[in-house]
Amino acid sequence: MGSVDLDSDGRMGERCKLGTLLCSMAFQSAQRSAERLAQICVEKEAQADAAEERLRATLAQTEVAGERLASLKEEPARGGGEQRAHEAEARAAEAEEALDIVLARLEEARALEARELDSAAERRRQVDIDVVAAKKKIGESTEQDMEHLQRVRRDIEAAVGELRETQDLLGAARRDLNAVEAAACAGRAERDRLDAELAARRDAQRLAEDDRAAHDSRLEGELRGERARCERLRDDLERAVVRGQLLEQIVAALKEQSGTLRGALEDARAEARAWRESVSRGGLGPLEAEPQALRAPADEGEHERLRVLAARPDPGPAAGHRRAGRALGEAPLPGALPATPAVLALKGAPRH
User: Which regions form coiled coils (predicted)?
Assistant: First the structure.
């Protein structure tokens, strides 16, 4: 910002500034005094109008009092009585005293108003004198201050240009600041979003850990159950091994018995064949070889039943096997296993 060029000793500019300031202050003071005096004049005029109104009212009251006084003085003449005359005179005297007081106050108000108007006129004349002197001083210093004011104007214009450049720079800086604030807001929003995502991931990780812990606990329970089932299966396998050994022993015993049963079956078949042949010839089959004394007396019905049985077809080896199986189940086999607790446990062991 440019500086104001002063005279050689720097006093002219200072005097111009001081004179301008004093003239401005004097003019402002005179203007304020004139405004104040005008306001005082208006107030005094209002007070004078009010006093005049009060005076008129007082005069009206005085006239009324005079009329009443005259009427009171006339009352004794009309025969109103001595007492009433004295009362009327007393009231008339009071009215005259009140009227004198009002007139005295009115005179005082008029004198005060005259003094105030005189002082206001004197102050107005003094203000006019001050205003004329200030205008004279301003006129004398105007020519000396013109060149200084021009220099000041040029400096002000230069300062205004620099101020505009500064405002442009401030506007650019403000725009940059707004951009930075917007970027900061976006960064805060991104940070909040990332914090929310991190919190969500932490929650998901915690839930996953809880699920994993529950799954591990469930797997441990299942593993314990599988271990218990394996223990039961191992016990069942051990019992099955014992049962297999017992079954092998039973099979060996059944193989030993099968030869004896096969021989007995062949003998039974031969006996049955011989019986059918004998019955078909009308005999009694194997009973013919028995002594006669041991035979039971047979009648025609018995012979008929035997002939019907002999006429039936041969059922074959299967019937013999079934009969042998029924006989084997009804009677203990030769060489069968004894009914020990192990055999009984094997027979009643549950199957898996």
Answer: 34-61, 85-183, 223-271
Please answer whether residues 130 and 4 qualify as being in contact, where contact means their C-beta atoms are separated by less than 8 angstroms: no
What single letter denotes the amino acid at residue 117? L
**For residue 38, what are its two tokens?**
């005008």
> Of 1, 142, 116, which Cα lies nearest the Cα of 47?
116
Tell me how far apart the alpha carbons of residues 116 and 108 are, in angstroms, rounded to a whole number. Answer: 12
pLDDT of residue 228: 92
| 304 occurs within a structural domain | yes
Looking up tokens 């004093």, which residue turns up? 22
Answer yes or no: is 66 within a domain.
yes
> What letters, b where the CB count within 10 A reaches 16 and e where it falls short, cover 70-81?
eebeeebeeeee
pLDDT over 60 (residue 299): no
- The conformation of residue 332, written as its DSSP 8-state character, comes to P
pLDDT in tens, 116-149: 777 777 877 777 777 677 667 666 666 666 677 6
State how far the Cα of 266 lies from the Cα of 272, in Å rounded to an integer.
Answer: 10
Based on the structure, what is the number of domains in the chain?
2
Average pLDDT in the 62-79 region? 64
Residues 154 and 36 grouped into a single domain: yes
Number of CB atoms found within 10 A of residue 145's CB: 20
| CA gap 58, 65 in Å, rounded | 10
Domain span including residue 47? 11-171
Tokens of 95: 């009215």
Q: Among all chains, which residue has been given the structure tokens 């009914």?
A: 339
Domain membership flag for residue 288: yes
Tokens of 280: 């078909």
Split at pLDDT 50, 70, 90, the class of 298 is very low
Contact 310/280 with Cβ under 8 angstroms?
Answer: yes
pTM (2 decimals)?
Answer: 0.25
As a residue count, the chain comes to: 352
Rounded Cα–Cα distance for residues 110 and 37 (Å): 20
pLDDT in tens, 189-225: 999 999 999 999 999 999 999 999 999 999 999 999 9
Answer yes or no: is 185 within a domain: no
